[in-house]
Amino acid sequence: MRIGVIGINHKLADLKLRDALAKACQKRFGANQSVHDQHHFILLSTCNRTEVYFSSHDLTATHSYLLSILRQDVKEDFDHKLYSFFGMDCFSHLTRVTSGLDSAIVAETEIQGQVKNAYNLATTFLCLPKELHFLFQKSMGIAKRIRSELHLGRGLPNLEHAILQTGKYFFRNTQQPKILFVGASEINRKILHFLKSKQYSDMTICNRSEIRSKELAILYGLHLLPWCQLDSWHQYDWIIFGTKSSEYLIKPEKNFTPADNDKLIMDLCVPRNVEPKLGQNAKITLLNIDQINRLLKIRHRGMTQALIEAENRVNLATYEHTNRYRQKEDSKITIFAASA
What we know:
The protein is α/β, with parallel strands linked by helices. It is built from ten helices and eleven strands.
């Protein structure tokens, strides 16, 4: 099976390096650039990982080609921070990723939608080789079955809980903070829904798509802030960023004065939406995704047996599907040779 992956994640690299590689990969291997000559790519980019899945007749050459492209855009030494898998190991890795077993927040559910979106986006632009279709379709199917049968993650604290508890502590002396959501991503929608259920009412949505903003405003009773007015973010107490952007959306501003109230900014994105230097302002507490994830490190305690079972099922399922794929391909070769 001619498939491979090269990637970097939260376990191996700090946010700065992940930021740089995410920007480079989105520039070079985005969905509308999924094929370079004989190299086919699917980019999976989330807050915790950036991975390029590929297929070609020469995986070694494609692997070297990927590295050479990335070295042009990323000046920092990163080769030793990357991981690479091929064939069945690549299949097993993506299945673990999609199941949430390789996530910073073990068994989180957002990754399933992110994998599906990456695959759908790539297929929208190009006819990908059958190996990549097989890889993503089977990985998503296996992961869905494992999560459903083992009830992974149910009843455990998740990212929404960590964000709520952080906000409650920060605004413990505030009656009702004014909350601004930047972006209508899946994670922002989940947080929005969760905070709404906890009786937070003074919430505003700011999104590139005006239609999507209005839909969410109607659904949750939100205020609207036009995208062109994002520079008025400092009028809010709690700002949660969750949108894709190759450039910082907000930076340190001269018009932000000490008279303004203390601000809590949560940047859930990689590449980051918020210029890190903004956190140097004494009136601003800026938290990135790694800092928020650390609040949930105890999550996997108490679910060890379920995780072991999930790992075993991933290994068995990927082994069985790989063997079937090989047998099917071998039979095609035999039939072709006999008819020649």
